[in-house]
């Protein structure tokens, strides 16, 4: 949730954060912190099995898992589309591995 400086009000909808490479220890910790702070989180990694394990302990209204290769712009766009369909507009994309991702226009 964040403060809207233009209107001077707090937006009531939680932020939607996509965490790429979420299926490693640092990614799991990032997800835990984001959920604890009230964000909706979409976890992405290349292996569905690892991502499915990450969902344990979280509600479907908190976390969604999508297996994808985020270095592929088409898969990243599809990931963001699915995240938006489920939780609303994606506000942040984090790469838990810290690598650089290709630039991508999210809105068309």
Automatic annotation (TrEMBL):
SUPFAM superfamilies: NAD(P)-binding Rossmann-fold domains (SSF51735). It comes from the Bacteria. Pfam families: adh_short (PF00106). This is Short chain dehydrogenase. It comes from Mycobacteroides salmoniphilum.
């Amino acid at each position: 949730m964040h403060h809207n400086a233009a209107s001077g009000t707090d937006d009531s909808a939680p932020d939607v954060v996509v965490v790429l490479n979420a299926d490693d220890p640092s990614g799991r910790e990032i997800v835990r912190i984001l959920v604890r702070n009230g964000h909706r989180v979409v976890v992405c990694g290349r292996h569905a099995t690892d991502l499915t394990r990450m969902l344990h302990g979280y509600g479907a209204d908190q976390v969604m898992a999508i297996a994808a290769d985020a270095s592929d712009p088409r898969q990243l766009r599809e990931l963001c589309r699915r995240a938006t369909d489920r939780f609303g507009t994606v506000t942040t994309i984090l790469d838990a591995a810290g690598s650089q991702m290709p630039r991508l226009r999210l809105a068309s």
